[in-house]
Structure formats: structure tokens, C-alpha cells
């Protein structure tokens, strides 16, 4: 893929909530959080927007997506600690938080308005799960004519096979998959 600079980039971190991370092995979770915080600190230092995306749902799941309702999966319930971002994340007062009800952070949220208001022209994406929410965010950002980078050290997935396939599909088409040092070289 030809190198094209990232115009007015933002960092978007997806679904690093207590409920989603609770089942992750401690060292793997710590690596993901450390890599994410590394990017957050860098973006803030460059005065670029940081957007936290998380899900929360009513206890009766009436606002949840079909699979959750069909299987009665109760994760990220409004008002519970499980719906909150992991406390080790470097969140800040000036950051934006988007609460989504579906895989895509653009669907049914005010993210499009945030993009316009903050003058965001490209997106670096971190978070979980690579094959679902991260992939949908990347595709939807790309569909809005944004350049997209997937932060390989700051994304992860419980389904490694689907994550590999998703990254292989997106790399060089919808997004570039880069490590933190490469991202920092891009965002100057």
C-alpha cells in the first residue's frame, strides 16, 4: 500500500470494559492495557482526540443486539462495574466517550457529529474484539473516507483465528496494521 499521511488523526479505543476483560489471562490483559495507554499518552501529547467506546445495556436486554437477547447474555449492564472501562486505562476529562448498542461505534451514536466537531480526518483504532467491533469500526470509518490504522499491539481478540483472518482481510485495503512505534512515526 502506498504511504499516504494521516490527516487530523484521532485514537479510538473500543470496548475495554471490565466485563469483557474479566475472562482474559492477566498478562495478556496487562499487555493490551499498557499498549493502549502508550498510544493514549502519545495522542494526548500531540493534542489529538482520544475517543473511548464502550457498550452498556438495560438489564432486561431490550436495547441489546439479537445474539445477546437470544442467548440472554448479560454483559455491560448499565450501572454495573462491568460496563465501566478498566480502571487502569489512562482516561482523561477532555476525552470523548461513545456508548454504543451494536458492534459499530458509528451506528446509532453521535460519533459522526464528534468527527465533524473535532475535525477528525483519520482514525487509529485500538481495543477488542478484532473480528467484530474493531473490524466494524474500521470498515465504517473507511466508508466515511477516513484513513485507518489498526494498532496491532493494542488490539486483541478472544478468537485468534477470526482475528488473523480479519487483519489479513483489512490490511492494505481498509486499513494498515501497524505497531505502536510505527504509529508514532506516522502521527507527528
TrEMBL record:
Its EC number is 3.5.1.59. One of its GO terms (molecular function) is N-carbamoylsarcosine amidase activity. It comes from the Bacteria. Gene3D superfamilies: Isochorismatase-like. The keyword Transport does not apply. Keywords: Hydrolase. InterPro entries: Isochorismatase-like_dom, Isochorismatase-like_hydrls, Isochorismatase-like_sf. Residues 10-180 form the Isochorismatase-like domain. It is an enzyme of class 3 (hydrolase). This is Isochorismate hydrolase. It comes from Hoeflea phototrophica (strain DSM 17068 / NCIMB 14078 / DFL-43).
Amino acid at each position: 500500500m502506498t504511504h499516504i499521511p494521516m490527516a487530523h488523526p484521532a485514537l479510538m479505543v473500543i470496548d475495554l470494559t471490565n466485563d469483557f476483560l474479566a475472562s482474559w489471562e492477566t498478562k495478556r490483559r496487562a499487555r493490551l492495557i499498557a499498549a493502549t495507554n502508550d498510544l493514549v499518552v502519545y495522542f494526548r501529547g500531540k493534542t489529538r482526540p482520544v475517543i473511548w467506546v464502550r457498550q452498556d445495556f438495560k438489564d432486561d436486554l431490550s436495547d441489546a443486539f439479537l445474539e445477546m437477547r437470544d442467548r440472554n447474555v448479560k454483559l455491560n449492564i448499565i450501572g454495573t462495574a462491568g460496563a465501566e472501562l478498566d480502571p487502569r486505562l489512562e482516561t482523561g476529562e477532555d476525552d470523548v466517550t461513545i456508548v454504543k448498542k451494536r458492534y459499530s461505534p458509528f451506528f446509532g451514536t453521535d460519533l459522526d457529529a464528534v468527527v465533524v466537531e473535532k475535525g477528525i480526518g483519520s482514525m487509529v483504532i485500538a481495543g477488542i474484539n478484532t473480528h467484530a467491533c474493531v473490524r466494524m469500526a474500521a470498515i465504517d470509518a473507511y466508508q466515511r473516507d477516513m484513513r485507518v490504522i489498526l494498532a496491532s499491539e493494542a488490539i486483541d481478540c478472544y478468537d485468534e483465528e477470526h482475528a488473523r483472518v480479519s487483519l489479513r482481510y483489512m490490511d492494505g485495503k481498509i486499513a494498515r496494521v501497524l505497531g505502536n512505534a510505527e504509529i508514532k512515526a506516522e502521527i507527528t
